[in-house]
Design goal:
- The complex is a heterodimer of chains A (400) and B (301).
- Helix content of chain A is 37%, strand content 24%.
- Chain A is elongated.
- Chain A contains 13 helices and 18 strands.
- The two termini of chain A are 40 Å apart.
- In chain A, a hairpin with a 4-residue loop joins strand 10 (193-204) and strand 11 (209-211).
- Chain B is α/β, with parallel strands linked by helices and 301 residues long.
- In chain B, the strands form 2 sheets. In chain B, strands 3-4-2-1-5-6-7 form a 7-stranded mixed sheet, sandwiched between helices. Chain B has a 6-stranded mixed sheet with strand order 9-8-11-10-12-13, sandwiched between helices.
- The model of chain B has no long low-confidence stretch (mean pLDDT 96).
- The chains are: A alpha+beta (400), B alpha/beta (301).
- At the A-B interface, helix 9 and helix 13 of A face helix 4 and helix 5 of B.
């Protein structure tokens, strides 16, 4: 789960981390009010979206007067920002962070992540702050410093100090920098983060160490321990279909195309998206209905795929392990019924090609053959099914 | 021969009184697995599918001499259950549970250092040795006895690949689902090492997916250490957009790393053929075995 920068800073503040004074604003009036309260020489107006690269995209403005704050807030609120992380469609700005400007002397990079290769937490630092870390890693790998942390003892003071020295903090601020690392580590552990990224971490002209930007990501599996973090979720940042699916316990990712698929198991679901593309289709989604499906859940999955007219065809690819093919077959029947009732039509409006294999496959096929469902076609093989649905969608497009 | 697990392995089911665990205990017993005990704190004295239940893993081990366990407890208790099995000196712990917090798994890995237990999972379908025993949820009827080993990060793709092998007449030795989490017990190389030493396994299928670099590492390891056992690869997630988690916690392209294209390239670079799509895993293996002159030997069913 991702949260906004201003929320990340609130979380870090609660761990004693030094962050600039600031307040979120949802309207121009709130922005001006916040700036008045801050009463700073320089005020920074920062667009709050779930994507990096905001500065380059014009989402961060420096204001010297309240009038400028007003001007920038007016410009940014409602604007669609396109950064290298948003994709070409960009993201609409609905919130701002109004923040006190800092007197930056030098910028650094610092982050914590769970490292899958070593099964340890790794702290990554660099004196090349403010840049994309991937770029630094590619061009100056020697400037990337890593400390691997043993979770049973935590970040040891000598490790933090060593990192501070290797990052070339000047002697006067080494202690402050090490203390900041310690507090960031506490936040990382304390909130089950998957990433804490401070870019830049700055030393000011007054020798303060401040987290000028902050990006916190959380391990979804750890959220049950952190109801306070769950509350920070900004649903407007998420794809509505993905939200809907998540609420129904379905694993769904919108891929934007028009050939949908419904699959059991994440691996097979990924592979099904790939095989649709392999046969020339434009995949609409990744959808894993999971190990224990009910007809109701399958019906909902169909509704999500069809919503807004996105899908022009659906490929159901099931290998029954724990999932039984007969349950899937019944689910398809039920889905057709529900959709017919809701739309006042005679069933699913687009072709559905079904490939069933595995547990109770004969029973599943029999259910769909004995009582055929409009637009539902049985495929004898996975390859055949994938090719067929792609062709059916192409035909439908030609005729449309 | 087989790896890790056989018909004589004495097994504990941790969390045996849960609904899913009960269902799969029955399935595992029917497949021939020697389940000797179950563990659920507070439920000692109960009997599930003829299996006695104990309060602790230690009690179960002392009473039955079990050496392996399969964990079916809810995510928030999973790490503790794994460590309980490790502490009791088990040789093998298989964790089926999905959604275990990553930092819990980092703790587990730290705790396991220097101890003898092998962990498989979490978030995996388990392990099945054909015709002998299975720990976890892999449907047994798909499998036929033979000489191909299966290693996979995905449950359903394990079944899919194994089914295609059986359809093609290529039986299997052992199937290991290593799981879809970023931090886990057994990774590709660990499993490959075991298959390398198993004389019965003549060829291997390795099913990977986006996220991390375990497939790249495995490709390098195979080239250096196992040049004589043919391997077929498959990688799911070619179309996955960067930064999006594709169902599995570990299936995410982050910072430009972990793409399917990189993995396929790394496998191909060391001569490992990668099935072009998921429906061609079986036939890719048939083709490779024919090239290597192993088809007749592997055509067991």
């Amino acid at each position: 789960m991702n949260i906004h920068e201003y929320q990340s800073k609130q979380v870090l503040r609660s761990f004693g981390v030094n962050v600039p004074n600031g307040k979120p604003a949802f309207t121009v009036e709130e922005a001006v009010e916040a700036a008045k309260e801050l009463n700073a020489k320089v005020t920074v107006v920062k667009a709050q979206i779930h994507a990096g690269g905001r500065g380059k995209a014009g989402g961060v403005k420096i204001a010297k007067t309240l009038d400028e704050v007003k001007e920038y807030a007016t410009e940014l609120l409602g604007k669609v920002l396109v950064t290298h992380q948003t994709g070409p469609e960009g993201k609409k700005v609905n919130r701002l962070l109004i923040e006190e400007g800092s007197n930056i002397a030098k910028e650094y990079y610092l982050s914590f992540v769970n490292d899958r290769n070593t099964a340890k937490i790794v702290m990554i630092g660099s004196e090349e702050g403010g840049m994309e870390i991937e770029k630094v890693a590619a061009e100056h790998p020697e400037k990337i410093i890593k400390e691997y942390i043993d979770i049973s003892v935590g970040l040891l003071p000598f490790q933090a100090t060593r990192m501070a020295y290797k990052m070339n903090f000047k002697p006067e601020v080494v202690r402050k920098a090490a203390a900041t690392m310690q507090k960031l580590y506490n936040a990382f552990i304390g909130k089950d983060c998957s990433q804490v990224e401070i870019n830049p971490l700055v030393v000011t002209a007054e020798d303060d160490v401040i987290c000028l930007d902050a990006k916190l990501n959380f391990d979804d599996s750890g959220l049950f321990r952190h109801p306070d973090i769950v509350e920070l979720r900004d649903k407007t940042e998420e794809d509505p279909k993905e939200l809907w699916a998540a609420e129904e316990g379905l694993n769904y990712v919108n891929l934007g195309g028009d050939v949908a698929c419904m699959v059991n198991g994440a691996g097979l679901a990924m592979a099904t998206v790939d095989i649709l593309k392999y046969y020339g289709g434009d995949p609409a989604n990744f959808l894993d209905v999971g190990g224990s499906s009910t007809p109701e859940k399958i019906a909902t999955a169909f509704e999500i795929m069809l919503d807004g007219g996105q899908s022009k065809g659906i490929f159901v690819n099931i290998f029954g392990g724990i999932n039984r093919c007969d349950v899937i077959a019944e689910g398809i029947q039920k889905a057709a019924q529900i959709i017919a009732e809701k739309t006042g039509t005679d069933g699913i409006p687009v072709p559905v090609v079904v490939r069933l294999e595995g547990t109770n496959v004969e029973l599943g096929r029999k259910i769909l053959t004995d009582k055929p469902v409009k637009n539902v076609i049985m495929a004898p093989t996975m390859e055949g099914g994938a090719e067929q649905i792609v062709n059916l969608v192409k035909e439908a497009e030609k005729n449309a | 021969m087989s790896i890790i697990l056989d018909k004589d392995t004495k097994v504990i089911v941790q969390g045996i009184t849960g609904k899913t665990a009960m269902f799969h205990t029955k399935q595992m017993l029917e497949y021939g697995t020697k389940i000797v005990a179950g563990v659920t704190p507070g439920k000692a004295g109960q009997v599930v599918e003829g299996v006695p239940v104990f309060n602790t893993v230690q009690d179960a081990v002392e009473a039955t001499g079990a050496t392996a366990s399969v964990v079916f407890v809810p995510p928030r208790f999973a790490a503790d259950s794994i460590m309980e099995g490790v502490e009791a000196g088990l040789d093998l712990v298989v964790c089926i549970t999905e959604h275990v917090p990553v930092q819990d798994m980092i703790k587990v890995r730290a705790y396991m250092e220097g101890k003898k237990t092998r962990l498989i999972g979490p978030n995996c379908p388990g392990i099945l040795t054909v015709g002998e025993a299975k720990l976890g949820i892999i449907p047994g009827y798909i499998y036929k006895k033979g000489h191909v080993g299966v290693i996979s990060r995905s449950g359903t793709l394990t079944y899919e690949a194994s089914f295609q092998l059986s359809q093609a007449g290529l039986g299997q030795t052992t199937a290991v689902g290593i799981g879809g989490d970023p931090v886990k017990g057994t990774d590709f190389i660990d499993a490959l090492k075991l298959f390398k030493d198993d004389d019965d396994t003549l060829a291997l299928i390795m099913i990977g997916e986006i996220g991390g670099t375990a497939e790249e590492d495995a490709a390098k390891w195979i080239a250096e250490n196992m040049p004589n056992k043919p391997v077929v690869g498959f990688i799911a997630g070619v179309q996955a957009p960067p930064g999006k988690r594709m169902g599995h916690a570990g299936a995410i392209i982050a910072g430009g790393k972990g793409t399917a294209a990189d993995k396929i390239k790394a496998l191909n670079a060391v001569g490992i053929p990668v099935a072009e799509n998921v429906a061609q895993i079986g036939e890719t293996m048939v083709k490779l075995l024919k090239e290597k002159g192993l088809y007749e030997k592997c055509h067991t069913c």
